[in-house]
Amino acid sequence: MATDQLPNIPFSILDLALIKEGQTPADAISNSRDLAQHAEDFGYTRFWMAEHHNMENIASSATSVLIGHVAEATSTLRVGSGGIMLPNHSPLIIAEQFGTLATMYPDRIDLGLGRAPGTDQQTAQTIRSDRMKAVRNFPDNIKRLQQYFSNEGSPDGIQAIPGKGTQVPIWILGSSTDSAHLAAALGLPYVFASHFAPQQLDAASRIYRDHFSPSEQLEEPYFMPCINVVAAETDRQAEWLATSLKQMMRGVVTGERKPVPPPVDDIDSVWTMQERAAVQQMLSCSIFGSQSTVATQLGNFLERTNADEIMIASYVYDQQQRIESHRMFAELMQGNAALTH
Predict the structure, then answer these.
(1) pTM tops 0.85
(2) CA-CA distance, 17 to 48, in Å (whole number)?
(3) Which of 135, 161, 305, 329 is found 20 to 30 A from 227 (Cα to Cα)?
(4) Which CATH architecture best describes the domain 3-228+307-333?
(5) What are 150-166's pLDDT values in tens digits?
C-alpha cells in the first residue's frame, strides 16, 4: 500500500522510559523527555507513559511525575498515561494527581486506565494487599473518577482539588474482550495493547464498536491500537535494530527483566526455539523495516482494524536512531515520505 493510501489519522507514542545497558534511570528519563520534544516537532498527537513496578528496565513507575516532567518540556503535545493501573491506587489520589496536571497544563492531559498490576504478583501484593477487591471495583472506580473530574464533583462531598471541573478525558486500556465490553458500556475511547498481546485484537475491536453506548465524553466509538514500529533506511537495518526489542520481550517470557541490551547480529544465538516462538506470537503486530515496508504493513493493519488513531512503541537502543525511527514514521503518516521500492 502506498503512502497516499494511508488514512489521515492522528498518530501517537507509548513510552516506558526504558533503562538500557550501561545507562541509569536518570538517562532513561532524560531520553524520554528528549523524545517527547522531538515528537512534538514531528507532529505526533500524544505521548503516553506506562506504569510499571519492580523492573530493572523501566523507569516510569511514578507515572504522573514523569507526565508532568514531559508536559513541562513541551507546549502542544498531549501527554498522558498508557496507563495508570487504577487498582494500585485510590481513585481520589489519581483524580488529584491528574487534576493537578490538567490545572498546570490545560487541555493537554490524558488519563488512560488499566486494571493489570503492571508488575509481578508479589510486588502487586506489596503495592496493595486488597488489590483483588480493587480489581473487582474497577468499573465503579472509573465512574468515581469521572465524578471527581466533573463540574459537579463527587456527590458524597469528597472533592478532588485540584481536579473538580477539569474534565480530564479518560481512556480504557486493555488486551482482552473484557476491556472492550467495559469501554463500550462506559462510552469511552479504547486502546488495545496489540504491541504485546495481540491475540484478541480483532474480537475486541469488533465488540467495542458493536456494543458502544454514547456518553458525555464520547458520541461515537474511538479505537486506538498500539503496535511496535522500528523504521530505518533499509529492512535489514530495521530488523537489526529490532533485536533489542526482541531480547527485551524474551526477558518478559523468561522473567529476566534486565536493562535493554544493544542489537545483536544473530538473534538466534540469544534465544531457544520455544522462546522465539513465544516472542514472535507477542510481536505479531509489529512492523520493522524501511518506509516502504512500514507503509505496506501499516496500511494493511489500519485497514484490518479501522483504527481512528494509531499509537506506536519504538524501542531502539540508540537514542538518535530511535528518534530517527519516529521521524520516519511521522513523515510516512503525513504523506511526506519519498518511497523507493
Answers:
(1) yes
(2) 10
(3) 135
(4) Alpha-Beta Barrel (3.20)
(5) 999 998 999 999 999 99
